[in-house]
Amino acid sequence: MVGRVFLGVWGAGILVVGASLMAGHVVSLPVPRATDSRLRASLAAGPGVVKGRWSAHHVLYQSCGCSQRVLAHLLTRRARPDLVETVVYVRDPAAADATEPATVRAQAERAGFGFETSTPAELERRYAVESAPFLLVGDGSGAVRYAGGYTARSGSTQIEDGDIIDGLQAGRQVGALPVFGCAVSSRVQKAIDPLGLKYARGGI
């Protein structure tokens, strides 16, 4: 009886731990609406925006594996000549082993991307964004045309930013994909990881 109780408690604990670690990769994370005033204002006033040209901001989190896969994809394809593209790299003060922002900046700029760094608090305040990887696309007038994720399914290796941008520029309706990846703000981190197993308590 004692053994069965122990196994039951152990099994329940494993399930809780596993769910906490996998939450951001299975459940879609919150994203701001394209109509959010902070999103629109930051897009209109951002350094990576040129009047009359489409723009794309790629919000990537320093210690997020999904963000690193998107970054590798971007560096491989290089910046598109029909866009002004900016990598917004969110620093994680608790990630001692993460790639340094200066290294990522050099890689991004060599590939033709603009680059800016942000803290989690700055990201939420400026863009209303609390999760990553996140894609923000604006048209030539500075209007937000897309605010969402890069993949249709959790764990997908098919990064769809190219299809999204092509569809928008062709005038097609493009629905926002969910964000599968990592919580950036402490509010969302605590919501999906209440035990603090995945995220250090450092964000907003």
Quick summary:
This protein is α/β, with parallel strands linked by helices and 204 residues long. The chain has 7 helices and 7 strands, in the order H-H-E-H-E-H-E-H-E-E-E-H-E-H.
Which helices and strands occur, and which strands form pairs?
Layout (H helix, E strand, L loop, with lengths): L1 H25 L10 H9 L8 E8 L3 H13 L5 E8 L10 H10 L3 E5 L1 H8 L3 E2 L1 E5 L5 E5 L12 H9 L12 E2 L2 H7 L12
Parallel strand pairs: 1-2, 2-3
Antiparallel strand pairs: 1-5, 4-7, 5-6
Largest sheet: 5 strands, mixed
What structural class do you assign from the helix and strand content? alpha/beta
Strand content: 15-25%
- Tell me, what is the CATH class? Alpha Beta
CATH topology: Glutaredoxin
Specify the oligomeric state: single chain
**Portion in helices:** 25-40%
Number of helices: 7
| Corresponding CATH architecture | 3-Layer(aba) Sandwich
User: What is the overall silhouette?
Assistant: globular
**First-last Cα distance:** 46 Å
Q: Give the rounded overall mean pLDDT.
A: 81
Biggest β-sheet: strands ordered side by side in the sheet: 3-2-1-5-6
Per DSSP E runs of 2 or more residues, the count of β-strands stands at 7
Let me know the CATH homologous superfamily. Glutaredoxin
Total separate domains: 1
Sequence stretches where pLDDT stays below 50 over 5 or more residues:
4-25
Encode the helix/strand succession as letters.
HHEHEHEHEEEHEH
Cα Rg: 18 Å
Would you give an account of this structure?
With 204 residues, the protein is α/β, with parallel strands linked by helices. It is 40% helix and 17% strand. The protein has a 5-stranded mixed beta sheet with strand order 3-2-1-5-6, sandwiched between helices. Strands 4-7 form a two-stranded antiparallel ribbon. The relative contact order is 0.21. Residues 4-25 have low confidence and may be disordered.
